[in-house]
Design brief:
CATH architecture of the largest domain: Orthogonal Bundle
Structural class: alpha/beta
Number of strands: 6
Shape: globular
Largest sheet: 4 strands, mixed
Strand order of the largest sheet: 3-2-1-4
Number of helices: 5
CATH superfamily of the largest domain: Winged helix-like DNA-binding domain superfamily/Winged helix DNA-binding domain
Number of domains: 2
Mean pLDDT: 91
CATH class of the largest domain: Mainly Alpha
Radius of gyration: 16 Å
Strand content: 15-25%
Helix content: 25-40%
């Protein structure tokens, strides 16, 4: 059974999901793929220890601290490829960004392939079920384009600014499907 609760943050209302012991989901209200990995019976409950830990983690994060991802027991649901991409996301340092192409290079090396599609990586990044904590907002296009954040480009910008990311070469797309 999956248990959920909501939590207000500076970027809006967030839904948290848990399997009882681990955090399995974190989505901003209205986010693309909101609750996409939840299946089976869902019960609302606010007093799980993992929810208390996650709320403290989020409070610290939004206060400008740098809580470690490893402080929370995470169990994002997804296949092997997505899990591998999400593990790479967890290695992106606070306040820094990487590109879909760089992650694709790492994935191709890991899988002993000569190439890897940046679009395949983008699909895995976009379906990250534990946003913010697994920092998919730290992935940008090769030219500094802030494309592709399921929580919206404005939210991505707020999170990067909160982390003190150098935004001087980054830009929001003016048109296209990645808005």
């Amino acid at each position: 059974m999956i248990t959920t609760t909501t939590y207000p943050t500076p970027i809006g209302l967030i839904t948290l999901a848990s399997d009882g012991a681990n955090l399995t989901g974190l989505w901003k209200e209205g986010q693309k793929y909101h609750g996409g990995t939840i299946s089976g019976k869902v019960e609302a409950q606010t007093d799980l220890p993992i929810f208390r830990l996650t709320k403290i983690w989020l409070d610290r994060y939004f206060a400008g601290e740098r809580p470690a991802i490893s402080e929370l027991p995470l169990n994002p649901m997804g296949g092997e490829f997505r899990q591998s991409v999400w593990n790479i996301l967890c290695e992106i340092p606070y306040g820094k960004v990487t590109t879909y192409g760089e992650i694709a290079k790492r994935m191709s090396a890991k899988m002993n392939r000569t190439t890897m599609s940046s679009q395949a990586v983008g699909g895995a990044v976009g379906h990250n079920p534990i946003s913010i904590i697994i920092p998919c907002h730290r992935v940008v296009g090769a030219n500094g384009n802030l494309t592709g954040y399921a929580g919206g480009i404005a939210t991505k910008i707020k999170l990067l600014e909160l982390e003190g990311t150098d935004m001087s070469y980054l830009f929001a797309p003016q048109k296209g499907t990645a808005l």
